[in-house]
């Protein structure tokens, strides 16, 4: 089984972190690769960034479909950008890390908290929790006010840890969800320190795709998620036309 | 007051229809212009099309912001593509035609039905109704199974009318919402025939933007909807970097 | 276009404040008049007051309908008293200031707070937010514990302002809704001081009625909101019989 | 214990039917009286009728409070008119027949249907089900299209029965709620014929008030439901001023 | 009328407290008996305890059904254990104290708080509030961190009282629900001290069963709640087979 | 990794079917065993059966915990009986087949239908969908009116298949969830015939437990799901006392 993990931003170092987490979580026999899109923002910290990350990630899915090189896909940004469009495009299943992390956390108790990066991204996480039916489980979305690319800087780990601790004490949460693909490597360490399960979406999504592929399950394609109809695309995005070389 | 109506698809004939409806609905003294993006799909009939329509529409907003040529914006596709991103980018208010149509219909009785084009787009309309808090008001989303660009063809008007009639009889709806910008010109005629109010989102959104601008109201920009942070963008989308010539 | 704004309480000074806000918000060419009912409470600060305000406001709508002197109506009390009954009675659209203010605020970001007068009226505002589908948008209803008729007294403005400030800081709201028609004149000033959009329901409702009338939209009257059946009324309220001189 | 049942319409024959049902359902030792208001509509079949029924019913509560002649109150119209206002006015508990009927039916299985009179009143019943938190339990509100005062006419009983039967077969409901005080006397008979429990709101509300009084429970009056502040009332409704002879 | 109140734990002293409250709340002419099951945990303070309390309580219902010795049943543990199963087994109505207490409190104002024993039981109470449609009414579930069997110890009453006081001040609740059958005897005293109505579930459920029996209402048994099909049971639980001596 | 799958009924043939599905779905290297409890009903077709199945399944978990023979658990009955209690008892994760099947189906499109056995079990499935936050995804729960132990009889397969087909055509569902552990072996075949993904809960839950164990995730045990306090148990259930030989 081959799983393609797409980091929707264009920062290769972050793709490497993500790939490490995805590979570490996969079963033996599953080949996991992470990829950086050829276009888009270096980090996703606004609705604007998220919208502009979508073409690049769709191109990666289209390429893999054309090559027949992947059985399933992970979208490795906590806003789950382009998820519905990706499901139309891919033959195999596509899972976002926010949906996988939050659905996984729902198995671990009555309520979880999300700990994310910038304050301004909290709204999107709350939206997704509601959209996935998890509003009752998601007790609070907390922000550390650390930029996505600053997670590696000194002090960042301590700030994230402190916020996770507050999730346990103040929210009474049974589990914590890390709200950014860039936090994947902190997962085990934080869990050990705060004494509750901590969910990394990259790992959760990778295993979820594995499960879907293993069980022969993919997006139902007889209605809303059928392959998009081919039609002219123009301008800068002309190559995104379904049937063009890049979206074959 | 100057309102820019963006048709997120690239079909100029449809932009003209939309502009006519927007202009007809605006108050005297309001200058309304509709624009066709320089890139993207000729029609929006899938999540994929919708995702790829966003860069083009954001570019139009950015251009108008750079020129200072608009006080508010309408996004004239019933999927409200790119709405949150547009709100981050624009100084003035931005309103989608689905949200305006559905919120307007909620003033007209206990329940409304949406009549849209292709079956596969119903899911998005249901999503939006829930997202805007209108699930209780939206009794049913009905599709005519007519493509967006086929609305002008012979027989299409009759099919839309028949579906609107069913909305009144079968759903018991007090009002009908037309679920596609391309249906704007049918609004008055259908209302006359079925005897209940029929809401065209282009008109509703244009008047809503007018109201917001007139009252000095714009998106709150102290949190989630603050201007996106400037950062590198790469590849085909490099010019979408905030601060670049096209997103000044 | 002629819009009748009904202040459901009997305090003429408050009617004047309301009229000023309504007139200021209307488009050129729209004639806005505010009216004080001939019966009822001097202010509305309980469910009891609200219930007893309804006959007087319905009489004003009936009078205007008989005269043919209005194309649409605003109910200018934040409890939206008698809204459903008024919709049955009026040929043109009827909009309450709570529904208009809250629906308008929903265009301005992810969440708003309501700042109202007495603590005991918070429940009604919360009820309305839920009823209009805006529970998710309405982060908190805050009270200043100032009586409706004391809003003009020294210190009141400062108290309202302080509560609005708390809405921004503590609730993280993108916008503030003023929860009393008597606060209309504070709107611009408070917005300037707290740096987020502030919505006055009188202005929002006046513009919304304008929009509905301009677009030819009125309450659907084929079901629940058809004209009430004529039938005998007795006692003190005998003149409220549909078909009587006052409810012609 | 003395319970006052208020028929909010002015039809004495219906008050007699209601009283019979209330008396039959009360415990030995409880004195139940039904009363017809001195003002208002002969039947309640619209939001307009409902609004105009409220002053008369509040006057009856105020009179009983002044006399000290009742320990608790039932509002015997399925729209629960004036319930919140009545709770502010009364020292003892006040229960509406819609809330009592629907909450009682919720003890009898997973779902119930409401069978009511005119089609146009269905919206109010749906509203109340949602307001009381019973949307999940209330599977459907069905109308017989019989006017409130026509329930005694030949054929009416058969029509109501047929609709109740459909509730069992089509909705799969475990219980049926009769959606009009005027249907009280049909309750036992219909239950026998359709084989599922049938709830009459007059009986349910009378017993609920009995329970609340017996347990020493009344509306909490430290916040929203404190006695309304005294203030001037004018015009036709001047005597409704709290502290006046009729609202002492 | 004969009501059987089942204390689902095996502590006879607590059964006595429960019986006292149930007897005190019943109408003259109603014979109320409380019973202690022959098997199960001495107190219910976990999901595990609750699950293991169910066989014993079902056996008591089955015995009473076989004897024909009860017209209705109360399940006197705030987790409402085994309620759906009991409804299948009993001919008469069955009411849990959590559902009765919470539905009763909903008649007393806009919101109530629950005050319960151990922190770990809060989740179950929140679940039940949601399940019964009362999430909007239930403002907060508070725990005293007192074990069920420690409620009689010195200081316990003060701790419960303090938590009830906080419910009024911090939650703004109109009423308080006592979240444990063992708190029944504190009800009147706490209400007197905190000045808002306090609901004891044992009393509320006893009166509710009385009401249902008096009105001839029992669980609808034509679908989900029909008598369970007879079938083999094995092992330790073999006597629980429907049709066996203990489940005749 | 060792996963214990508990068939909560006592029919060994059904345990074998379940084990086959669980084993087939597990990754290489995972040892899956299914077990039949030593007590309880031969099939679970009522709330009563479900309640009485819980002690036997908890005993199996306790035994495996005492032996240290399992890293995680599947509860293989679509009512997810005893799930919360099992989570308190087990050190490793515990997953029910209804929650796993429904959460898995939510990755496959906008909506799914559940196809279950007897009509009377539909209510429980609807309850669980709501409880897990999946009410919006679960379009309809359909029953075949086939007893759990009759699924192997001639004609049963055709009846299940026909109902699944209706789920696609009438409900417009993107996926179908099989609502009984006994249907596991039909999964692939039905999917092939109806052309949409079909989810078997046994397979989904087995893979979900695998994922949780692989990622080091187990139920958060610092609050509600901490190990149950030890205390006396009496009568037939005395050995269920925490700390006894069977619940060590």
Automatic annotation (TrEMBL), chains A, B, C, D, E, F:
<dbReference type="GO" id="GO:0036348">
    <property type="term" value="F:hydantoin racemase activity"/>
</dbReference>
<dbReference type="InterPro" id="IPR015942">
    <property type="entry name" value="Asp/Glu/hydantoin_racemase"/>
</dbReference>
<dbReference type="Pfam" id="PF01177">
    <property type="entry name" value="Asp_Glu_race"/>
</dbReference>
<dbReference type="InterPro" id="IPR052186">
    <property type="entry name" value="Hydantoin_racemase-like"/>
</dbReference>
<dbReference type="InterPro" id="IPR053714">
    <property type="entry name" value="Iso_Racemase_Enz_sf"/>
</dbReference>
<dbReference type="GO" id="GO:0047661">
    <property type="term" value="F:amino-acid racemase activity"/>
</dbReference>
<protein>
    <recommendedName>
        <fullName>Hydantoin racemase</fullName>
        <ecNumber>5.1.99.5</ecNumber>
    </recommendedName>
</protein>
<comment type="similarity">
    <text>Belongs to the HyuE racemase family.</text>
</comment>
């Amino acid at each position: 089984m081959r799983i393609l993990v797409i980091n929707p931003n264009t920062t290769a170092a972050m793709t490497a972190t993500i790939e490490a987490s995805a590979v570490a979580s996969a079963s033996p026999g599953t080949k996991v690769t992470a990829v950086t899109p050829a276009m888009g923002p270096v980090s996703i910290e606004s609705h604007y960034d998220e919208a502009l990350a979508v073409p690049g990630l769709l191109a990666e899915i289209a390429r893999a479909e054309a090559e027949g090189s992947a059985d399933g896909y992970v979208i490795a940004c906590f806003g789950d950008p382009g998820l519905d469009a990706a499901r139309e495009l891919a033959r195999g299943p596509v899972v976002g890390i926010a949906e996988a992390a939050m659905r996984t956390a729902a198995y671990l108790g009555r309520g979880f908290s999300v700990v994310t990066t910038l304050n301004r991204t909290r709204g999107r996480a709350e939206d997704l929790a509601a959209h996935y039916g998890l509003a009752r489980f998601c007790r609070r979305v907390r922000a550390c006010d650390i930029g996505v690319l600053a997670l590696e800087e000194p002090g960042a780990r301590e700030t994230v840890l402190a916020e996770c601790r507050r999730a346990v004490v103040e929210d009474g949460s049974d589990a914590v969800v890390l709200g950014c693909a860039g936090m994947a490597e902190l997962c085990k360490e934080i869990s050990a320190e705060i004494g509750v399960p901590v969910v990394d979406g990259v790992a959760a999504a990778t295993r979820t795709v594995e499960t879907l592929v293993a069980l022969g399950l993919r997006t139902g394609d007889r209605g809303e998620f059928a392959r998009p109809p081919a039609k002219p695309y123009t301008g800068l995005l002309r190559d995104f036309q379904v049937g063009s070389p890049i979206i074959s």
